[in-house]
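User: Can you recover a sequence for this backbone? Please restate the input before giving your answer.

Assistant: Of course. Working from this structure:
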């Protein structure tokens, strides 16, 4: 077969190992390397030959792991946080699967070692190091303030608005794949009712979906007619202004007043810190991160009553338990309502009524701005169209659905006494509410 062109590619063992390694995300590879480094350091201190761990029988390996889990300490001699402990064991699990085809987490032969690991996690929790800190969602007042800060006539302002739209509607994870996004990754479509939208025509491998699992980033950015906040219109305007000689979604805004972009990709760190910088520029109540946008998407969808499995179709989570932490978040308004309910039980109606009046007086500045366009009777079969349109309406609230309630009487410098309004369910109607004072 000398000189004949071969049809197949023949890989050696090193090339096969490299192919398998590439399956893991960069973060997973980093965790594995860090865990192995900790393992080697422990072996050096305990006088153990690390190479023997790859040939020693299971019972002896289990005894070693029991000592390892119980003795784990960071470089300062302190116990690791629970999250770090879990990361180290995860990295070693991956490492031993590759080296010995052993699953040190799920194999029953390592049950005793894992019981020691769980006991250490319990001990760490008692020491106050067990809490997992989740990123806070952006409050509605801050979200509205952020959108009002975008100058869509400037290249940077338009790009920032499209960036936030993309992160919210596609529920992107932090820095993940931002630099790899291409103009050609996106396309436009029209649903059965003639509504136009932007969707991702090509998916990127994500943390939860490394392989081809027919799992897509299923979000859509629908058109909001006659709205300056329309994500569909902003995206098309942005795409048309990009340098078409560079198939990169995030291009550096050109200097000057002209709305165009240079043939240069925005840096990875600039994209990774985008939300931090926007928080400072817009004067938000706190410094948010890119991942806070993802938390905002999931939290708002949960508040709006979407089922976990529907949220997962956009967020990419693999199990419903993964999004429970977002459902558990309680905003300031809800905490205030709960505290006032307890106060009502203690003092009667007086404090509760006064709180209601105060809430109404400051309604335009509170986090209680609600979307009025909700339909709890949407059929299951219409999820791809109507559910996703409701998703879009959940985020865009401040332009057309903010009600300014000014119910404070200046007379005698005291709050007005307000007669309670009836609870109403209204569809497709305009309503005038008249409050009577006495």
């Amino acid at each position: 077969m000398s000189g004949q062109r071969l049809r197949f590619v023949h890989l050696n063992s090193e090339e096969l190992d490299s192919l398998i390694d590439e399956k893991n995300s960069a973060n997973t590879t980093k965790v594995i390397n860090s865990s192995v480094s900790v393992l080697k350091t422990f072996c050096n201190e305990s006088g153990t030959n690390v190479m023997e761990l790859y040939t020693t029988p299971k019972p002896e390996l289990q005894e070693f792991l029991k000592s390892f889990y119980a003795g784990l300490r960071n470089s300062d001699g302190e116990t690791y946080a629970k999250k770090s402990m879990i990361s180290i064991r995860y990295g070693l699990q991956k490492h031993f699967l590759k080296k010995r085809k052993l699953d040190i987490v799920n194999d029953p032969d390592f049950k005793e070692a894992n019981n020691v690991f769980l006991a250490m996690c319990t001990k760490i929790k008692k020491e106050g190091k067990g809490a997992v800190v989740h990123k806070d969602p952006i409050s509605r007042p801050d979200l509205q303030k952020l959108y009002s800060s975008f100058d869509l006539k400037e290249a940077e302002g338009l790009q920032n608005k499209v960036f936030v739209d993309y992160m919210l509607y596609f529920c992107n994870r932090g820095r993940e794949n931002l630099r790899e996004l291409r103009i050609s990754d996106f396309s436009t479509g029209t649903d059965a009712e003639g509504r136009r939208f932007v969707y991702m025509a090509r998916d990127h491998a994500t943390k939860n979906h490394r392989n081809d699992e027919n799992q897509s980033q299923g979000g859509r950015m629908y058109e909001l007619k006659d709205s300056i906040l329309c994500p569909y219109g902003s995206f098309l305007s942005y795409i048309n202004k990009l340098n078409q000689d560079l198939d990169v979604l995030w291009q550096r805004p050109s200097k000057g007043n002209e709305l165009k972009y240079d043939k240069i990709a925005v840096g990875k760190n600039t994209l990774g810190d985008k939300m931090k910088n926007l928080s400072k520029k817009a004067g938000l109540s706190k410094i948010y991160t890119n991942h806070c946008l993802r938390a905002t998407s999931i939290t708002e969808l949960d508040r709006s009553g979407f089922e976990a499995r529907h949220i997962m179709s956009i967020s990419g989570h693999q199990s419903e338990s993964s999004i429970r932490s977002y459902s558990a978040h309680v905003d300031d308004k809800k905490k205030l309502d709960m505290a006032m309910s307890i106060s009502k039980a203690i003092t009667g109606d007086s404090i509760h009524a006064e709180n209601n009046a105060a809430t109404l007086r400051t309604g335009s500045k509170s986090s209680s701005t609600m979307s009025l366009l909700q339909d709890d009777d949407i059929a299951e079969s219409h999820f791809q169209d109507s559910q996703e349109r409701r998703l879009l309406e959940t985020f865009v609230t401040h332009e057309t659905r903010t009600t300014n309630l000014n119910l404070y009487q200046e007379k005698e410098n005291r709050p007005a006494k307000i007669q309670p309004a009836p609870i109403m369910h209204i569809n497709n109607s305009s309503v005038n509410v008249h409050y009577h004072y006495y």
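That completes the design. DSSP finds 16 helices and five strands in the chain.
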